[in-house]
């Protein structure tokens, strides 16, 4: 087979990655180890679900080999391997166009490594290597293949010799430059510390031949060196560790390792439950919205493990849609390995876990709102809409869980306020919770309809999201107070005789009103003298069930 070119986009991304200065080149090792671990997960899962296969724990490991003389670093795994086609498919295309555009836009903004987020983890190898060789033998195959590339001129695939199932990744480490000491990546201690830092919780042993020293026999001061194979990682997954052993940085690192996002999570929730159903979980509330959050591509869900074995990457049953932004993992001993997607939906254990998780997230958000207002507002800016959709969907069945978490801009406070804050400030005689809908706060401020309510000194909530009014209609009553749009014809405000400056008498001007009504016949139902206006000559009001803004939205919806 001849040399193949990378797909055009892959090439551009490769250039971008290799040539941009990454502060953390060392993460290449994390990426390759995580691929190796994924590959072992896959074969492990096969042996557990197929009775004809047996499993011996000792057969599954990752091994790191250093060949200083030839500047080679080898990462081997006993995972599922790749066929010729898989080598071509998986290593020949780097990223999808959307993510490339995204990366370009974002790479300068913050220093985070977002490489792996787009399935480009493997290519990070080219940050430290001039040449990458992949030798692989797939599970169930007799043939092995070698994939080779120098990153620029494409790649070749040809048959090769390999005895065991699995994959060897061989990196030809770059020569030192003025800025970067690539030699480091051939040093035992350096590699060990990188593994400890990023891959400690990988569940399979990461082995390495390590040079040790011991006193020479019969000598008190003379040492001799010997080589010993050591397992470098502690192998305890982070979610099984005790909370008090862990720092915020550990969770942040895990979030990054898992490519949950390129931001830093604003909160993590570490759950250990022993009870009717036992499980461990780590959940994250992200800071920023993923770039594809509102696209069809976005898939909510948590990673699901059954007693340490990954059974699903995105288990959507574990999260309600309105918490679809939450990332994380769940590991439970009470789930069956053979569980299928269809069965999961009806699984009692899983339902219990999901309910529990939902409450934990809700409580965490309540605490955030109570104790770290700024952070909550930043969160709300990203995901508030999601919560409001949550109230609206399922016929309002979630409103109790969510109504204390929503916020709206207040005419009086000039900032976001909760419904509770609004109600607690209401003067005795104020009947309703007032709101005004419009495109933006600035526009709502200018609405004539707000005049009377504001003059009374009452606070108005500004609804600028399409979903706002729909959500509020599901809540209907909050702490015994009903909601009322400022454009409603009945505002529940008592008018004193001389309060309105309007001296238009409807009876005396009957003809004028009739005339206006005729001209506007296809636009309005009636024209009346208003007592609610001060500065503005005219305004729209409505008697119907829906506010003017809501009617606009309803009319714009396809039938
Ligand atoms: P990601 O891991 O996000 O899918 P990568 O660029 O890291 O993206 O890897 C691309 C794909 O190549 C993987 O999804 C996997 O199918 C395959 N792959 C990479 N390394 C290995 C390996 N050591 N063993 C088996 N398959 C691998
Ligand atoms: Mg990967």
TrEMBL record:
It comes from the Bacteria. Residues 1-341 are annotated as: A. It holds the Pfam family HSP90. It is found in: Cytoplasm. ATP binds at residues 31, 35, 77, 82, 90, 96-98, 117-122, 167, 341. Belongs to the heat shock protein 90 family. PANTHER family: HEAT SHOCK PROTEIN 90 FAMILY MEMBER. Homodimer. This is Chaperone protein HtpG. It comes from Anaeromicrobium sediminis. The gene is htpG.
């Amino acid at each position: 087979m001849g040399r193949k070119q990378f797909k055009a986009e892959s090439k551009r991304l490769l250039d971008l990655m290799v040539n941009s200065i990454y502060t953390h080149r060392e993460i290449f090792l994390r990426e390759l180890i995580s691929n190796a671990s994924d590959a072992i997960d896959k074969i492990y899962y096969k042996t557990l679900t197929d009775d004809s296969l047996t499993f011996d724990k000792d057969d599954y490991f990752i091994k790191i080999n250093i060949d200083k003389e030839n500047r080679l670093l080898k990462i081997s795994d006993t995972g599922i391997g790749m066929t010729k086609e898989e080598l071509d498919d998986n290593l020949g295309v780097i990223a999808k166009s959307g993510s490339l555009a995204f990366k370009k836009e974002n790479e300068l903004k913050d220093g985070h490594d977002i490489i792996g987020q787009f399935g480009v983890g493997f290519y990070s190898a080219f940050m430290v290597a001039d040449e990458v060789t992949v030798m692989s033998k797939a599970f169930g195959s007799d043939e092995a293949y070698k994939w080779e590339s120098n990153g620029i001129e494409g790649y070749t695939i040809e048959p090769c010799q390999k005895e065991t199932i699995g994959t060897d990744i061989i990196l030809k480490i770059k020569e030192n430059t003025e800025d970067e000491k690539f030699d480091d990546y051939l040093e035992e201690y350096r590699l060990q510390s990188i593994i400890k830092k990023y891959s400690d919780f990988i569940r399979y042993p990461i082995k390495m031949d390590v040079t040790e020293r011991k006193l020479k026999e019969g000598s008190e001061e003379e040492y001799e060196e010997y080589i010993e194979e050591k397992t470098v990682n502690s192998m305890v997954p982070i979610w099984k560790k005790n909370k008090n052993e862990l720092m915020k940085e550990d969770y942040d690192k895990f979030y990054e390792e898992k490519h949950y996002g390129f931001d830093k999570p604003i909160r993590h929730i570490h759950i250990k439950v022993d009870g009717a159903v036992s499980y461990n979980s780590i959940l994250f509330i992200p800071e920023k919205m993923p770039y594809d959050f509102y696209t069809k591509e976005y898939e909510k869900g948590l990673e699901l493990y059954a007693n340490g074995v990954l059974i699903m990457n995105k288990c959507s049953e574990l999260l309600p849609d309105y918490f679809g932004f939450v990332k994380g993992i769940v590991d439970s001993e009470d789930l069956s390995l053979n569980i299928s997607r269809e069965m999961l939906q009806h699984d009692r254990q899983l339902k219990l876990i999901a309910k529990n998780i939902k409450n934990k997230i809700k409580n965490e958000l309540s605490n955030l709102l109570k104790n770290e207002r700024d952070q909550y507002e930043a969160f709300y800016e990203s995901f508030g809409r999601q919560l409001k959709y949550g109230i609206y969907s399922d016929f309002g069945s979630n409103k109790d869980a969510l109504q204390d978490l929503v916020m709206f801009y207040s005419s009086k406070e000039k900032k976001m306020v909760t419904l509770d804050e609004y109600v607690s400030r209401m003067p005795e005689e104020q009947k309703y919770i007032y709101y005004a809908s419009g495109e933006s706060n600035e526009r709502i401020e200018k609405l004539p309809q707000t005049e009377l309510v504001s003059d009374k000194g009452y606070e108005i909530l500004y609804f600028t999201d399409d979903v706002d009014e729909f959500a509020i209609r599901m809540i209907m009553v909050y702490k015994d107070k009903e909601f009322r749009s400022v454009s409603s014809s009945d505002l529940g405000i008592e008018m004193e005789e001389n309060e309105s400056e309007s001296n238009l008498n409807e009876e005396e001007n009957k003809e004028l009103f009739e005339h206006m009504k005729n001209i506007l016949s296809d636009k309005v139902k009636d024209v009346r003298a208003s007592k609610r206006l001060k500065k503005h000559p005219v305004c729209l009001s409505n008697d119907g069930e829906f506010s003017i803004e809501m009617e606009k939205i309803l009319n714009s919806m396809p039938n």
